[in-house]
Amino acid sequence: MIAALAEAALRSFALGGVVWIGLTLFRVRNPHVHMTAWIVVLLASLAMPFVMHWPTLTIDRLPLSVPVPDEGWPADVPMLDRPQASLPIMSGAGVAPIAKRGVSIDWWMVATTVYFCIAGLLLLRLAIGLCLTWRLARAAQPVKSREMIDADVRVSRDVGGPVTFGSTILVPPQFFGWDAKKRLAVLAHEGAHVANRDFYVLLLASLNRVAFWFSPFSWWQFARLAELAEIISDARAIDMIDDRLSYAEILLDVAASVKPRPMELAMAEASTVCARVERIIAAAATPVAVGWRKRLSITAAILPVVIVSAGMIAYRTPDPVPAGADLGQVPSEHYHPFVNFYAMGPASVFAIFREGDELYGQLTGQRRLRLSVASDGTASYAASFGEITFPVDAERRSSELMLHMSGRDVRAVRVAELPTPVTEPVSIDQYVGWYRVAPNRVLTVRRDGDRLQVQETGQGRSPALAEGNDAFSVHGDHLLIFLRDDAAGVSRLLVQNVTSGARLAQRIDAAQAQAIEADFARRLAEVPDRFREQIPAAGSKEVILRGIEDLRRGTPNYDRMSAPLAASIHRRVDELRATFAALGAVESIFFRGVGPGGYDIYGAKFENGTAEFRVLLEPDGKAGDVTFRPDGNDELGGMVSCSEEASVRGRAGTSPIRIMLYNETEDDIQIFNLDANGQRKAQSVVRSDRTWAALTTVNNPWIIADKSGKCMEILLPGRQTRFQNIGASNLGARLGRAARRAVPIANGEAMLRQYIEGLGKGQPDYDHMTSEVANVTRQQLPFDQAIVARLGALRAVSFRGVTALDSDIYVAQFANGSAEWRIGVRNGTITKIALGPNF
After folding, report:
1. pLDDT tens-digit profile of 152-191?
2. CA distances from 460 to 309, 443, 672 (A)
3. Is residue 748 within 8 Å of residue 829, measured between CB atoms?
4. Cβ atoms 627, 555 nearer than 8 A
5. DSSP H/E element including 611
6. Of 73, 228, 518, 559, which cross-links 35 as Cys (Cβ 3.0–4.6 Å)?
7. Which pairing describes strands 501-508 and 623-630: parallel, antiparallel, or unpaired?
8. Residues 6 or more apart from 615 whose CB is under 8 A from it?
């Protein structure tokens, strides 16, 4: 609020400065013109806090955004805690100590308190003056005489000279002893105040001064309006008696006896009378009054300046699709050129695929987004990280795409198309080998008779079914496309997963594969004991602190990272530096636990927010992997009714936060972001029983709509809204702030017991999981199975509460320890699952 008032005061000052310069340049001397101009400025000043930002000039530009990960999340990170960005961390010997902070002072609260105290005192003074003067006017005796003007004139023993209150003129008892000229001059002067409604103008100026007491311009504005009111009234009185010198003597005589109250307009105040007398004597003629037409012309001349002073400049990402253009306007045969895979880096891929009459795009580790296709056959969309366009060549084939991301252009080259039917038999021996699909995972391709078998590190073997030239499918939800080099040899593998998107895997030799497998085996052996004991790895805290400091300086130490992590950080160092600059200095960091993949989990409090870090150290002390999740600041956020969409606006925030939505509506939902103009920006389409996550800022509004685009609710990110279940049954309750469910799901405990039992046997029941949960379970199975085996036989399960995502929290007691589990169940199907510390 203080910032808004300060901005309004500054805008009003700028408006007043322009008006003053205009009056000076055009040498305007008529006080009636000045009075009209400054009344317009006064009204604009009072309205400024409410109308500023309404006039908006929108400028197209590429969006700035938070960083987007180039890699998929680690396979062994629980589904409810998938990271959105990586952070470079180093295990250097010296660590800068965390600065100790004294008593935290909320300076904004102090400023707000001071403002309201002073404004309250000024307003109280104004109210008391109005009340006392009203009582004085009410007690005065009305008088009539042949000299009276058409006004309410009253005699009061409590005034020493003529004053005006509202439309009432108060005169002292000596009034009837004055000569006729003096009585006529006094009544003409005060009558001019009544006719011009000067009392009400100065009352508004007083309220403006109360609201903007900290602005010198508001005090000058009041004084200037009072001065002009007296000049105009003096001119009226001189016209009535037609004697300047006599009127000057009358002013001096009256000034000696007047003692006005705060809300009275006295005819002659001692502080102004000398200047007025000099002006009266020096003037050659009285100013000419202006009519309503001229007043309207003056107002019309100032109005554009008012609009400019109240306006703002907004930026938006231009919509690449012509108004009204949609997929339905483009023939379906135009879709084929875009259905390809595009490489953005060593492991990051953008995949374009078709479902029915719609096109979707998906970046590695990100959720799918619906594409808009323009009528010329080119496709584009504005994603959360920027705009993407797909140029088409002469053969209507999109050979590359261009991403406008974080203010820079990133070119991505097509690496594969959708599989085409096999035209002639090929030898499957050329595909046999090892492919690195993640820093600590290898996909081994073997021959089994006339078919291929694939096995990812830590998982069982699976058959690969031929789908086309160089293309195979696994489990029905993985597509493998072998990519060839210039010599037509298979050098890379593209792995497309329906949940996490596509990844590029480089072919490696046997020695490299064995080293990765050995490291995985070491972790698999260490993780169960580390998870059971929940003790951090030596040096992991210092590694995170050093990494934060190095990144804030923009000088990460790549020598202290694994090669994959260093490559990932190098591509995003500028964006990550900006993110941590927004968070501010580290105030504290604390250990939360060990995750099921062996990651040490830390919570960190920054000057402008909080965050969670997960770090995995290699045997040599290097950072093997780090994940980072910002959790916003102390602002709670909330849910807003769709009826208020027209009034909700996006606003810049300083505290980054990751939000996660889970769709349990049994239908598709659409996600839109609202910009500063209240315009929707399409972000994603989320399938039923799928999660969607985004990195944003606190209180930056998001529209959750059904598949037709009809708003279901509006989410303002904050501590209470980081995780949300989107289901038709809970929308009204959430908007009504109903209490969270306090009892467990009817069959939640039984499903959890079956899940744990399946993990122990290495045979989870994938048929009773959503595809997303099944995929995560397959990835985590080696570690989860080892952890369950180390914990021993399951003894008891106790319910502890319900999460923001409506999952049940259980603590499972085993023979050799305990573990926390979170599970969501609907219609006999596991919709969410997580093991280990989750906050």
Report:
1. 889 888 887 888 888 898 888 888 888 888 888 888 888 8
2. 68, 11, 40
3. no
4. no
5. strand 609-617
6. 228
7. unpaired
8. 89, 540, 543, 544, 599, 600, 602, 623, 625, 626
Which of left, alpha, beta for 490 (phi over 0: left; psi -120 to 50: alpha)?
beta
Residue 207 burial (10 A CB sphere; 0-12, 13-18, 19+) = middle
Q: Is the dihedral of CA 9, 12, 14, 20 positive or negative?
A: negative
Using CB atoms within 10 Å of the CB of residue 737, give its burial: 0 to 12 exposed, 13 to 18 middle, 19+ buried.
exposed
Q: How far apart are CA 499 and CA 241, in angstroms?
A: 92
Whether 273 and 258 have beta carbons less than 8 Å apart is answered as no
Cβ 9 vs Cβ 215: under 8 Å: yes
pLDDT of amino acid 317 = 39
Instruction: State how far the Cα of 470 lies from the Cα of 374, in Å rounded to an integer.
Output: 32
The values of phi and psi at residue 726, to 5°, are: -105, 105
What length does the chain have?
839
**Which 3 state secondary structure label does DSSP give 589?**
strand
Contact indicator for 673, 683 with CB cutoff of 8 Å = yes
The neighbour count for residue 234, using CB atoms within 10 Å, is: 28
User: Tokens 């009185």 map to which residue?
Assistant: 237
Q: H or E segment at 133? A: helix 107-139
Beta strands in 722-815 (DSSP E): 723-726, 794-802, 808-814
Helix (H, G, I), strand (E, B) or coil at 405: strand
What is d(CA 584, CA 587) in angstroms, rounded to the nearest whole number?
9
Instruction: Return d(Cα 743, Cα 13) in angstroms, integer.
Output: 59
| Cβ within 8 Å of residue 284, ≥6 positions away | none
pLDDT at 151 over 80: no
C-alpha to C-alpha distance for 739 and 615, rounded to whole angstroms? 35
Beta-carbon contacts of 149 under 8 Å, excluding residues fewer than 6 positions away, are: 187, 188, 191
Hey, what's the torsion of the CAs at 532, 535, 536, 537, to 10 degrees? -80
Residue 232, classed as helix, strand or coil, is: helix
Q: Give strand ranges (E) for 254-348.
A: 265-266, 312-316, 340-343
**Residue 830: pLDDT above 60?**
yes
